[in-house]
Amino acid sequence: MPLNRNFGGRIAGRPAVAFLAFAGVIGAVLVGQGGLDTVVGCGMISDDYPSQTAKDWVTHADQVVIATPEREEETNRQDFKSGQYAYRTDRTVTFRTDNVLWTSPKRPERSVSKGFDMVAPGWQVYRESGTRIKRTASNAPRLETGHTYLLALRWTDDGWTVLGEGAAVPFDDGVGDQGEWCGRVLTKEDIARGERFSRKDDDSLEKAVLGQDANAAKRALDEAEGSGA
User: Fold this and answer.
1) Which value, in Å, is the radius of gyration of the alpha carbons in the chain?
2) Which of 137, 92, 138 is CA-nearest to residue 116?
3) Among residues 79, 12, 1, which one has the least CA distance to residue 34?
4) Most buried of the four, 75, 112, 114, 129, by CB within 10 Å?
5) How far is CA 98 from CA 4, 142, 149, 150, 159, in A?
6) How many CB atoms lie within 10 A of CB 132?
7) Mean pLDDT score of the chain, rounded to an integer?
8) What's the helix, strand, coil split of the chain in %, to 5?
9) Dihedral angle of Cα 195, 197, 200, 204, to the nearest 10 degrees
10) Please, what is the Cα angle at 15 between 168 and 32, to 5 degrees?
């Protein structure tokens, strides 16, 4: 299952979305379930599993990791006979696992400690010009090489995927909410400014690790697990 079909829509609750909307950069056109056809906006689709809170993560994930994409390959090409786009692709991204923060005691069979592959949004290519446009996932990172992420992973029939849009958090330089998001690079200050426009009752793990390191994520997961999640 392509990664971009697993990120759900909760635009009002994502501080980065609020920041980008305020900055006037949301305005792309929704393209099916593949997200948007440009990088300047993100769409709304439903999570396959609840993905917002630490409780969601320890309830539904198999592994929670900090990981870095090391390489990617274009896959699942779809050609179009007509229209402005000649074809679209996904990307199979190969991750290096930097740190395993949590493993489900219920589903420990598969390990990602040595790395893993996951399908992520790819490209759309204009027919006339050949220009390539990043396909983006709804409310979420594209998962690009050169960046690092905090991910709540679950094994499915189609391989590893994240629970939903709240289960992929930018984590460049070991700092929560800093790095690539929806094809753009944001600092923690960018996202902190967006907090002014997000819901006050947002109890997402992403918000909890804003500007924090891996220890903050680990504490949140351990607390959620200890509470009987």
Assistant:
1) 17
2) 92
3) 1
4) 112
5) 23, 19, 10, 10, 20
6) 12
7) 79
8) 25, 35, 40
9) -50
10) 60
- Nearest CA among 18, 41, 6 for reference residue 202: 18
| pLDDT > 90 fraction of the chain, expressed in percent and rounded | 57
pTM for the complete prediction? Answer: 0.80
Instruction: Check residue 170 and give its pLDDT.
Output: 95
219 phi and psi angles, rounded to 5 deg = -60, -45
Check pLDDT > 80 for residue 222: yes
Adjacent-strand bridge partners of 152 = 64
The position carrying tokens 């909760």 is: 10
Shortest CA distance to 139 belongs to which of 23, 51, 228?
51
pLDDT in tens, 163-199: 988 899 999 999 999 999 888 898 888 876 755 545 4
Predicted local distance difference test score (pLDDT) of residue 30: 25
Task: Tell me phi and psi for residue 17, to 5 degrees.
Answer: -65, -45
In terms of pLDDT, which residue wins out, 119 or 30?
119
